[in-house]
């Protein structure tokens, strides 16, 4: 491994980028892996600090993943798939697994903060890297808002069960869902921002506590709701056919987007080459097992037709099974903590991706300015938090979840390609984890991502197309000329 900030020896230099010439050559310029690693951690005015071990990295991935699908999106997926929503979780999990294998290999080979954006930059060129980074902004930034919307639902459940009142609909739901402004969604994003501004190590500690609370809440749900399971609730198992299962799986893929969050901490991990692959795979296994268990118990305890699309579905099931409010209150309390943890860790990932893009010159320098005392990109964190908070307060959950899923799937597809490209162009590079049966598994991962994307609604594709168009305009107007690779070539 290179010493921090050291230039790689000539024998390890990557093949040079194509010579400066036409537009095509500039769009395809690649950033050598060694340069990505050598620049790791450095920002404007300071550096990120290596303070996280494997346990903390695993908790980041679990924190970013566990909660969204079960606490928030389950109520919307069950009406599409019926009891077969368990199969939908498995399909979404398998899709995530093949991509997770590719993430694990690249995270150990290119241990930097940019996640799939940096992997694409090293293998497929600047334009593809920009497209991937733009998808990650959609994936992370918008998912923060989507999860924050669901947080308000469980907060009202908690307030109703403990204090006997709820936040008025006008202040607890966005326009289009019967409200004017979703104040709780904004508040949870601002709370996460406050933790992040305190430092990465402090945020990781808070997240570990919150992850423990959310796992305990889900185990409590399974123990209580299990007593209400009725065999008849599982029949017919697939009432809407495979099309419904596929559609629910595409929506539930939103539940898995956080497993790659550990890869955004590549420049703050103590031993990234060893720990990042392990954290990614371990977190995905734990999350998938819990998702399938909770979904199986939920549809067994409540007939699938009674799932109304409420973001607080699990709390409602607890109340129906026991006839007592106390269990629903306990679950709601766990969900409030759980979803806050998702907001915290996904928001963290978004800031680190923008940090990497800014360091490369593709977005303004303000996103890579690091505070010397805390080692945190302060301005980046504040800007992203305010944007996500306003988005959460103004946009309904369903639209956000589907838009996030398509951006995630596209980025994952690119990661599977990146593994194949790097194996062919840099076969001599040391790899602490290797995707088995490559290139077969990356090809399967790529195909599954495309299949899941095809299951999403047409309006989601329209939104995605508009998002990509805006991103390309920004790249050609700003990033193409201001890229650090571009300025180095002049």
Largest beta sheet, briefly? Answer: 2 strands, antiparallel
Number of domains: 1
* Number of strand segments: 2
Which structural class best describes the helix and strand composition?
Answer: mainly alpha
**Helical element count?**
19
What is the terminal-to-terminal distance?
30 Å
Going by CATH, what is the homologous superfamily?
Answer: Amino acid/polyamine transporter I
Series of secondary-structure elements, N-terminal to C-terminal:
HHEEHHHHHHHHHHHHHHHHH
Give an overview in words.
By secondary structure, the chain is mostly helical. It has one domain: Amino acid/polyamine transporter I. Helices cover 68% and strands 1% of the residues. A two-stranded antiparallel sheet has the order 1-2. It is globular, with a radius of gyration of 22 Å.
Top keywords for this entry?
490 residues; mainly alpha; Amino acid/polyamine transporter I; two-stranded antiparallel sheet; 19 helices; 2 strands; 68% helix; globular; disordered N terminus; transmembrane helix; membrane; Amino acid permease; AA/rel_permease1
Topology:
Elements: H1 23-27, H2 33-38, E1 42-43, E2 46-47, H3 54-65, H4 68-81, H5 85-109, H6 116-123, H7 126-162, H8 169-172, H9 183-197, H10 200-225, H11 241-252, H12 272-301, H13 313-322, H14 325-359, H15 378-394, H16 397-425, H17 440-454, H18 458-482, H19 484-489
Short summary:
The chain is mostly helical. It has a single domain, classed as Amino acid/polyamine transporter I (Up-down Bundle), CATH 1.20.1740.10.
